[in-house]
Amino acid sequence: MNSALEKAGILVEALPYIKKFAGKTVVIKYGGAAMLNDDLKEAVIQDIVLMKYVGINPVIVHGGGPEINSLLKRVGLESTFIQGLRVTDEATMELVEMVLAGKVNKEIVARLQRQGGKAVGISGKDGGLIKAKKRFELVKNEAGDRIPTDIGYVGDVVKIQPDLLFGLIDQGYIPVIAPIGAGETGEAYNINADTAAGEIAQALEADKLVLLTDVEGILRDRNNPDSLISSLQINQVEPLMEEGILSGGMIPKVRCCVEALQGGVGTTHIIDGRLPHSLLLEVFTDQGIGTMVVK
Amino acid sequence: MNSALEKAGILVEALPYIKKFAGKTVVIKYGGAAMLNDDLKEAVIQDIVLMKYVGINPVIVHGGGPEINSLLKRVGLESTFIQGLRVTDEATMELVEMVLAGKVNKEIVARLQRQGGKAVGISGKDGGLIKAKKRFELVKNEAGDRIPTDIGYVGDVVKIQPDLLFGLIDQGYIPVIAPIGAGETGEAYNINADTAAGEIAQALEADKLVLLTDVEGILRDRNNPDSLISSLQINQVEPLMEEGILSGGMIPKVRCCVEALQGGVGTTHIIDGRLPHSLLLEVFTDQGIGTMVVK
Amino acid sequence: MNSALEKAGILVEALPYIKKFAGKTVVIKYGGAAMLNDDLKEAVIQDIVLMKYVGINPVIVHGGGPEINSLLKRVGLESTFIQGLRVTDEATMELVEMVLAGKVNKEIVARLQRQGGKAVGISGKDGGLIKAKKRFELVKNEAGDRIPTDIGYVGDVVKIQPDLLFGLIDQGYIPVIAPIGAGETGEAYNINADTAAGEIAQALEADKLVLLTDVEGILRDRNNPDSLISSLQINQVEPLMEEGILSGGMIPKVRCCVEALQGGVGTTHIIDGRLPHSLLLEVFTDQGIGTMVVK
Amino acid sequence: MNSALEKAGILVEALPYIKKFAGKTVVIKYGGAAMLNDDLKEAVIQDIVLMKYVGINPVIVHGGGPEINSLLKRVGLESTFIQGLRVTDEATMELVEMVLAGKVNKEIVARLQRQGGKAVGISGKDGGLIKAKKRFELVKNEAGDRIPTDIGYVGDVVKIQPDLLFGLIDQGYIPVIAPIGAGETGEAYNINADTAAGEIAQALEADKLVLLTDVEGILRDRNNPDSLISSLQINQVEPLMEEGILSGGMIPKVRCCVEALQGGVGTTHIIDGRLPHSLLLEVFTDQGIGTMVVK
Amino acid sequence: MNSALEKAGILVEALPYIKKFAGKTVVIKYGGAAMLNDDLKEAVIQDIVLMKYVGINPVIVHGGGPEINSLLKRVGLESTFIQGLRVTDEATMELVEMVLAGKVNKEIVARLQRQGGKAVGISGKDGGLIKAKKRFELVKNEAGDRIPTDIGYVGDVVKIQPDLLFGLIDQGYIPVIAPIGAGETGEAYNINADTAAGEIAQALEADKLVLLTDVEGILRDRNNPDSLISSLQINQVEPLMEEGILSGGMIPKVRCCVEALQGGVGTTHIIDGRLPHSLLLEVFTDQGIGTMVVK
Amino acid sequence: MNSALEKAGILVEALPYIKKFAGKTVVIKYGGAAMLNDDLKEAVIQDIVLMKYVGINPVIVHGGGPEINSLLKRVGLESTFIQGLRVTDEATMELVEMVLAGKVNKEIVARLQRQGGKAVGISGKDGGLIKAKKRFELVKNEAGDRIPTDIGYVGDVVKIQPDLLFGLIDQGYIPVIAPIGAGETGEAYNINADTAAGEIAQALEADKLVLLTDVEGILRDRNNPDSLISSLQINQVEPLMEEGILSGGMIPKVRCCVEALQGGVGTTHIIDGRLPHSLLLEVFTDQGIGTMVVK
């Protein structure tokens, strides 16, 4: 009986958070470690379904990661490189799209459905969700000048048309989105999943954007997990970059958060996907997990 | 962090129950000990608000108990008795109604509101919810014959008109109902709260009727709490009464459950209101609390 | 046949007024003499039901008057006074609430229902309708200075949350409101019924606020009923007060009208509740009854 | 003030009838004397607008009467006759339609609008409301046999398609219908207005069908207005015809009532259109006007 | 099979136009030659029904033309003239209304219905659609001054109340409107059909206003059909009038277009109603027919 | 101008078909030759978008055909065979799903979007659309007995849950469905596309099921295209099979039609996808293309 009472206590403790987020939209970039380990996968899925059942509207944008490389290898497709940047040619893009929209996307949907969630998997082509255009990376030429360079079917978001998402949410579905954009003539572009999540969060006027990553959050000292910066304001970002505390792969993630905040998203979170149920803990406890970036 | 993970685990464990009862209607007869002790009061209120937030539609029917007697005593109203049955004359009924609809009812509403629930307190007069008529108790006369006898403004339910409840539920409110019925000319009748709850559960085609009582449930041996009968089928009721295991105040409660089941209610529960969060435990754990009566 | 034709004539005469107010909201402060005499009660109730049936949305705010004192006396509660102001202590407030929300409110509902109206009785606690805070009266201390003084559970309106009222009106109900407000922790405050009616009229953007009183309206000469001021503009109020024509209990009523007008209510009316069907006459005849205060 | 109170009394007396018919549909055949005299016209129009404002849904089907003959005369169109039956040839039908749909119909609409009603005038061609086919009257030939005979564009109702009416009623309009039916190829047929009203009442599942006529109702003794039969059951109709009490032009009217009743209309009424406000009196007083035919 | 493929090709060619106008409102002034010849009539009707079926909302305003004169002649009504302007006295207006609302209007409705369109014919009296007032033409008096002169029941539009039209369109009907306006007391006024169409187009915020006329459009050289001005901007109108290229009956038509454009209509078109299916060609081909006037 | 008039004529000729199918649901199995040739692809896409724009609700179920084999070959996956039946092992199924849901599906969506259609591509996993279970083919064992044999992830439809489709159609989208079913634990099954289309047509209560094939339809004499059976009744199917006229791959297609008809689909069509716009011609011309199977 004791443990039963304890359970009751914990459920009651969640009440304020449930109240706070009822009816709110939370966009989750799902990727990294949380997509590899089967237990972590199930934990994320349970978290999302639970969020849905207590009245939150989660929207999932996923990456593809290792599955893409694995298929490229299997079909023996060798990539071309320009100054170290991999070129996504048409043949590669075709495989990227297959993996993202045909495998990863549908696996997430199937898991959500099995856990009792109603989910629909789409890509940015569906309902004209993500309009994209070719991205030109600034690549140094021989003279050392940075010149916009065609690296294939990698795209920037031109516009998000969120009607389909509103429709699916209204009908009680959890949208699961493969970050593929469609160009003028319908050609597919590979969009960075963090970017896609951020843009979609803005178009939906989401209350939260959560990036599931493979780090604890932003650390003041990279080697000391206790140095976690749990909350960060927009105007602290530049100084932290100058100090070198924000660096490497964390920079684009933080930039994505900043843009989302400027575009009207309530709060943004960089959390540790390696920790089981980090998503649930972020949403349903005060202490929080990882780093929150706010306006 | 450990305790955080534990919390996540418990929230996730509740998921199947949340899924199971999403959108379901649960009518709760709230009375007895759970209305006296302040901690128990808060626990019940939290349970109800939590139920609402995870998508259940709770409907509360409350008793009045000691508060009524306390007011009767304060105004010095002495009751008449017919063969031991207290007569609810007009002056008494006036005070009963004031306590039920003006004090107990509004206190529950205020507590629910403070916990973040949206609640509306009504009596059976409102929107014509409970149509009632005078009840004639069978009272032994001098010759020893049981004769229907007028014991004042105690009523039987003639009809439940649930439109107002559906309207309030649709708008997201928790209806809190004082068990007062209205007669032909609008006169008030005191209705037994268990009966009112059962009739309302039928009219709402509720999935669950829960009676909060001051006992553990039905015990096979009154002196042994371990002899709890955790589940009971309709056809076992008569034999148990003949054996004397079902007796006293438990009989009308079980009858109320049986009628509710026959009227289409999914399951009915007699649970121990003295146990904090017994309501939550009943709904969100498998083991269950008290006795469930089913078809 | 003649009388039938006469009836037809009168019904037809009402047509322009019915047209004028179709779909409009009229907030009625119901109190005073019209709550004492049984015939007057029935007349008011019939007027309100008729208004509802011809397409007007009446909203009732009632006082409690003599019934409160009667109960205080019965339970032998003696009031404390501060400089002549009665202090509403917790025990008193409890009884006030019982009478207002549990007796007067439900009697009005029952009468409306019996006349064929669909009515729902609530207090300001329900659905968070009236948020209130303690009122500090300015009371002279020994030095003669007016100091804000705690006189118990008498409240000022902090905010009206009219969602519940809109919901009830949409479903065809006549809301009947006991002027009880809820403080931060859910504690009850007694709110002046005129004030509550005025605030609710503003929150509902009502077309009319009608205060049923025990006088003919505003008289230029208190002793001459023929000196009735049938229409008054906001800017005439101050001069009339300076002249002493507006005085005593009429001042807060007129102030309540002025505030309602400034808050967007169409017209306000102080009418004589001692006259049977004065409400109906006010709404359905040109001549008008009592004093209309307009912008 | 006295007369004001009297007015209030009469308005209150109407309340039970207003309640009884709230939301009900009443189909009114408007014709005869009530279309000739200007005061009678205004009285009928006021009655209909009042009905609409107190929540009844009136639907008007009108005749054309003398206006048709007047135009035929003006254009000098001479009618052909077959055995005493006037033949409605194409040229005549064209004029009939112009008068009904272009003059009488629009005059009624303009009067309703001026009295504050929202009205829309249509004919049976609009929205495919009345599908009709040529009627063949049984006409005696020289041999004395009754043979189905072509008398031109006089039609029988094949089907009522009431969608347009439901749409207009939903939007708060009073439909005003010219009894023209459309044949297979869109050709116009003149439909008897009583018949059209009866068929439309059935298609709308109306609660009342009222035929405004130029007689007091059905008289047991044609010369004695006091011999009015105020209520008649379907099974009394045949006997009354055999007795000769029902005869002449009253027979098709009663038949129309009987068919409407058999088709699901609640009650049917033959009332005296020469009496001002007879419509209002029929609906809003108990005594009733004319003869009611019921199942 | 070949011709089948050709058909497919043509249907596919229409796709871009169908897409472009899906859900758009097109107000069509229907008059002139297209109302005389039976083949032209059918072509116009087919065009309108087709427009409706592919998702456009056509609204028809029609003239009456020769039919009015024909009836005036038949009844022998001789017109009075003031300085060459025909006076529309009450007797004339009665006949005008009958022809427009009772004959021409219903014929169009019947034809649309027969072609499978759902149509409802109304006049400006219905639902208060066209509020009008007497028009005073400037007529030269003996002194040569232009003085506003009463020429009878010819009206100017005071206001369009488009609710009825929105309601009919929502229900899938094609509204067909006789250009009759109603004055203060409900009296009918004859409104110029072009003007009525232009005003209605503004009130509906239509995307297109199409005037079906009896000329090719605006010709630079009246005698050379090849000199058609296919597109005209508002600011070119005055110069063209000064040059004398725009003259006679074309001036009010162009003015009507200019006002419609200034009132928010998308594009306006003066097209040749003598050409079969000119309406369809205007809407579904790029080249266009007649003259388009744009902002 | 001539060709313009011709176009108008052809558009008008389509009107009856547009009327006939307005609001109807047409399920199209898209596969075979029509998926290979780029011109044919575009023609099918245009046909579907046109159908949508003229008010039909097309639903697409597609196959994958040669693309699957091509990918299997590229990754070097060699198939196992049981008695000549290819076994779809887990690795194969993974690739099949990627091609169907990630490549073919999204290409169709992108093409529809580019032509102006709003399309959403899903698989049977999404929203629980296709519940499936493992199919056991009857395979001859050595003893020659036909024994149910596990051939891997090839599935039978257990249930279609069409809610998602209704939702998408309501919002104006064209659903494009990859025929993947989800088993109990979310595992993917390859479903025959014809079968999936037939089952979905039944669940949607579609008016038409169209199977795009690579033959002219059912030929009485396989070598004579002029021997096309343009219409076939259910009861003629068995005799034709006995005669050997129905044989080979046509048998399952006809069976699929028969089941759809028995499940409530209006008409079913086997048409020649090699003919450009055969879909449009089937729907918009009388002659019809291919073989229609009807009840």
UniProtKB/TrEMBL annotation, chains A, B, C, D, E, F:
- Function in brief: Catalyzes the ATP-dependent phosphorylation of N-acetyl-L-glutamate.
Residues at which substrate binds = 64-65, 86, 190
Question: What is this protein identified as?
Answer: Acetylglutamate kinase
The record's annotation in NCBIfam families points to:
argB
Q: Which gene encodes it?
A: argB
Q: Known EC number(s)?
A: 2.7.2.8
Which SUPFAM superfamilies does the record match to this protein?
Carbamate kinase-like
Instruction: Name one matching Pfam family.
Output: AA_kinase
Name the reaction it catalyses. N-acetyl-L-glutamate + ATP = N-acetyl-L-glutamyl 5-phosphate + ADP
Main localization of the protein described in the UniProt heading: cytoplasm
